[in-house]
Amino acid sequence: MVFSPAYQGMKVEKLEKTIPREGPIVTLVLDGVGISKPDGKDGDAYIIAETPVLDELTAEAKARKLFCHLKAHGSAVGLPTEDDMGNSEVGHNALGAGQIIAQGAKLVNQLLVDSDDILKTQNWADFIEYAAKKDKSIHLFGLLSDGGIHSHFDQLTALVSKIAATGVRSVIVHPLLDGRDVPPTSGLEYIDMLEKLLEDVNKAHSGFSYRIGSGGGRMHCIMDRYGSDWSMVERGFNTMVHGHIDESELVSGYKGYYCCAKAAVEHARELFPEKKDQYNPPFVVVDSEGKPIGMVEDGDVVININYRGDRAVEISQVFDCPETEKFPQFDRSAIRPYPKGIKYAGLLEYDSETKIPKSFLVPPPSISSVSSELICAAGLRTYAVAETHKFGHVSFFWNGNRSGLIDDKLEKYEEVVSYPNSETEKKPEMKAPEVTKKLCDAIRSGKFENIRCNLANGDMVGHTGSLEAAVKAMEAVDACVGEIKKAVEETGGVLMITADHGNAEVMMKKGKPVTSHTCNPVPFIIFDPKFAGEYELCADSIDTPGLTNITATFLNFLGIKAPEFYRKSLIKLL
Ligand SMILES: O=C(O)[C@H](O)COP(=O)(O)O
Ligand SMILES: [Mn+2]
Ligand SMILES: [Mn+2]
């Protein structure tokens, strides 16, 4: 076996028996396409849509016993509880690593919520005790919900009370409304909970000022990912740091500056009901003289309360860039001079390869010996493709939250530039046809043994809450799967189709639109046109088969034995 120089020494065992196929082994992730309960009440875009290709592939795989359901939420993907829905980060981590990893959510709970261990860390001293000693404000910003995908309200509660106990007198919270991992207009409930939390601290400690300073919708302010729309980051930064709202926001009577968060959100709802929480315009809380009450000042501490990396990396780069350097994406001093000596930390480390952010309160999960390393060590060539919104899913998340290629001689990762987020509902086909074209070219090229692809539609359109758009999304996906099937058939490869978690299969609850993920299982379909009974699906013999079992499966198709610490393969060679 040839070892790539970067992975010399990594132990890769070949399977004794192999499944000889001429074409590549293709893993296709239909992002956010789960299997709903068949009571027809959920507004299941997958069932409602005309999906002849997927229907036929499913029927054929069932007939050959090459179909099963897999668990994609809760403990199967390392989340704290069985009520935690799956998400792209943990789903793609699971698919790439083949192991159940205690995820960031769980690690933060252990250190911050379930114990006082965080108080013993050096960073607690450097950031929180520092603010108490120097009498600086601590700014907490991030996603305000209990969706449990990027952040959790319980963690914010624990953080605020521990900061208060450390003696910090001034805390300013800059919440981003969610409506994507929780019901679309639930934001005010969380604002109320936050106001109560802060008021309780103020009542218990005389001279303390814990307040909401500014905010906005997560898909309009700050939480961009993969460089898709830096203007979101700039907008959120100016709102939070400089207490400034751009004039373009001040339309139809929207004022931008309000006496409290609740007044701001209520007014935005009245004027722009279609925006819901995700796209809520930015707001700044001002005093009776119209002065922002919570701008970031010299020497203040700024903490990102999100633990998940993809949508936290860009804003972290803004704060990590030294104040003496020009930040390449936008001018941090456009509104007023950028405050000096800001101390920035993430709740977690978001990218452990590029070390973003430079400081963090909780060490991230360590995800090692991922399948990409083994495949490179075996000298096999890999192609990965997705559109921008999901590009980091097939690269960064797949490889254990590390950016970049594992081996540039053996791997090629391609991104198809997405339409902006705001176009998703209007263009439910998204860039799936372009992604599919690249994928089929790669399948036919004969240059890759291993291929993976993510089609974003089920998830991204699912998050809009529009059943009609989600049905169109599923139909677009189906047409793409038809093309992919043809290319696999022509080349004599194998296609595995699955999803990272549910979303599009539940677009309604009690007649109301649903935008969030689900706890449903996901499909696993093997399409192997040259199948001659050399193996069988053995999901039944595995205790709770889940996403992590797919990794050993594609390794086996590639002729590689999965390491002992991987979860079992879904196929048994006969
Ligand atoms: O970031 C998002 O878009 C959602 O919160 C979660 O969706 P994802 O896990 O599918 O990316
Ligand atoms: Mn996803
Ligand atoms: Mn999603």
UniProtKB/TrEMBL annotation:
Cofactor: Mn(2+)
Keyword tags: Glycolysis, Isomerase, Manganese, Metal-binding
Gene3D superfamilies: Alkaline Phosphatase, subunit A, BPG-independent phosphoglycerate mutase, domain B
Pathway connected to this protein: Carbohydrate degradation; glycolysis; pyruvate from D-glyceraldehyde 3-phosphate: step 3/5
Domain of life according to the entry: Eukaryota
Cross-referenced SUPFAM superfamilies: 2,3-Bisphosphoglycerate-independent phosphoglycerate mutase, substrate-binding domain, Alkaline phosphatase-like
Metalloenzyme domain sequence ranges: 24-561
E.C. numbers: 5.4.2.12
Pfam families listed in its UniProt record: iPGM_N (PF06415), Metalloenzyme (PF01676)
Domain BPG-independent PGAM N-terminal: 113-351
Family (UniProt): Belongs to the BPG-independent phosphoglycerate mutase family.
Protein name as annotated: phosphoglycerate mutase (2,3-diphosphoglycerate-independent)
